[in-house]
């Protein structure tokens, strides 16, 4: 039995006010104060608003204003500012603080990007304690900076993501502020500023601050309007660059084929049309010659440990002795992650040639490289390699560009789940599975089994890891679960799982995968099953395939190769489809 901790709010406030009035304030004492407030939340109780008003005024006058030049204290200052904002406290003016804020604004333009960001952050802290912080001003300034110039370490990036969450506590608040920036006039920005604002969303907001939160979809209508305005302006680099954040955010939030079709209609088809309408201006001619070399090229966004990549490697192995020359073109989307060496080695060991798209173009400018030039460089290489059959697999810009410009005599889309993908220049569609979905497109279905070494990688080691995980689960429980992107856990699916858990008290559910976990946790709490609906974060399917007893297939977007990986773990593995 846990001991109840005694806590006297008034004594707490008074003791810290006295401490902060002295000269012996330490970083540890500030941390203890912040931790206590986050635990008990007394600062949000209006009964104590006067006491907290005095406490925060003491903090401002004795600590924050006198130490405004100590940027190493920014993270703790930002946490204090967040507490004060949540308390609803309004402090009387501090003339010195106001002067410092004005000085920051006057000196802003003369500083390097790194220091501009520090000035903006400290200015926002001071504004919070001297008046209401202008969050729109902060965001407007930040989104003009190149994020790559603003940080010196990954830890600084993490701390800034924390800063965003404290300034905009919910993703809705952040997206609402961002929408004021992403207006149609955004298309007229210089290309560096144009890319910078979008990179803050994809690299900081999406990846760290509000991890893959569905609220990012609030930006889509504005982003698509900007995309179409760039098309109207014939701003080639902006059009090609913007395809990545659009597809990355939108498609990772898709659950259903109608959602895929909506993206195709609003983005892919206009993009494909733009490419075809401007081929003469770019001096690009379609390939008309039928090659006789029997060369097949596969185009992938990157070679990671995903099921589509393992299926490709399996297919290359099966085709090793066929009379074909095989090529794998890695789009190398460094914005996501670099390809893994072991998979590149697997391509080479299967006898295929490997081409890294990023190495074909000028990559000296980091993430600010030209997407348009990268697309053209890949097309040039495919033509030089005299590819006879080109197989594209994803919604990245290169797929549409290669197909729309007719880069190979035969161009095929290999469907891995998006059945509605449709751009100019596709001659046929193939698919290695059949989930029963039908539309107006004809698919050539074929059987493809993943190599046993991928289905059963390091089996004994995986079993041992699974056994360790099971030790920390409730004993004698039937473990239900799924493996894949957390975004696939639709509200309807989670409601069905909750009904199963409530009807079967001896069950727990493991949500294995990465994505907007906090959002899904909130849904589990609302359904009353938070204690038995467990989120693991990123999960190795070959480990959790041994942990889960019954796989509950997601819907409406069903599981991919992870289902086959689960079934491969033994005879007593069951998959249940709930719809």
Structure description:
There is one protein chain. The chain has 579 residues and is of the alpha/beta class. Helices cover 49% and strands 10% of the residues. It contains 23 helices and twelve strands. Strands 3-2-1-4-5-6-7 form a seven-stranded parallel β-sheet, with helices on both faces. A five-stranded parallel β-sheet has the order 10-9-8-11-12, with helices on both faces. Helix 14 (307-318) links the parallel strand 1 (295-300) and strand 2. Helix 3 (49-64) packs antiparallel against helix 4, helix 4 (74-87) runs parallel beside helix 8 and helix 12 packs antiparallel against helix 13. The chain is globular and about 85 Å long. The two termini are 43 Å apart. The model is unreliable at 1-5 (pLDDT under 50).
Count of alpha and pi helical runs: 23
Shape descriptor:
globular
* Major β-sheet profile: 7 strands, parallel
Alpha-beta classification:
alpha/beta
User: Biggest sheet, strands in spatial order?
Assistant: 3-2-1-4-5-6-7
Could you estimate the helical fraction of the residues in percent?
40-55%
Query: Taking Cα atoms only, what radius of gyration do you get, to the nearest Å?
Result: 27 Å
Low-pLDDT runs: 1-5
Q: Kindly, what is the distance between the CA atoms of the first and last residues, rounded to a whole number of angstroms? A: 43 Å
Percentage of residues in DSSP E strands = 5-15%
Averaged pLDDT, please?
90
Please provide the count of β strands: 12
